[in-house]
Specification:
With about 100 residues, this protein is mainly β. It has a single domain, classed as Immunoglobulin-like. It contains no helices and seven strands. The strands form two sheets. The protein has a four-stranded antiparallel β-sheet with strand order 4-3-6-7, with no helix packed on it. A hairpin with a 4-residue loop joins strand 1 and strand 2.
């Protein structure tokens, strides 16, 4: 199995790990923070060939994370960094003219 780069898509709240599988097999992906606390875990039944494994990052805080990919009797590890907090909606500014009420007589 070949493991590619991890692509962070902050706005979509996900990361993508590309893999090239040399045979059909079940893989487990575990994301841990730098203290070893699990943040996400999932299993996939992969077919032969290239595939993209997507996992959520929207709830992860700024920091370094490790991705463990377990398959057969092997484990591969990679890491990624979250450098900015997930996008939050800006507060709407109140327009003082919108709070005015006009009356006609």
């Amino acid at each position: 199995m070949e493991v590619g780069e991890i692509y962070i898509q902050t706005e979509e709240g996900r990361a993508i790990l590309d893999v090239k599988n040399d045979k059909s097999q079940i893989v487990s992906l575990i994301v841990q923070d730098k203290l070893g606390k699990p943040c996400y875990e999932q299993q996939w039944a992969l077919e032969l060939g290239k595939q993209s494994l997507q996992f959520p990052i929207a709830d992860l805080k700024t920091g370094t994370y490790f991705v463990w990919l377990h398959y057969a009797d092997k484990t591969k590890m990679s890491s990624f960094k979250i450098t900015t907090s997930p996008a939050t909606k800006p507060e709407s500014k109140k327009n003082p003219l919108l709070s005015l009420k006009f009356f006609s007589w």
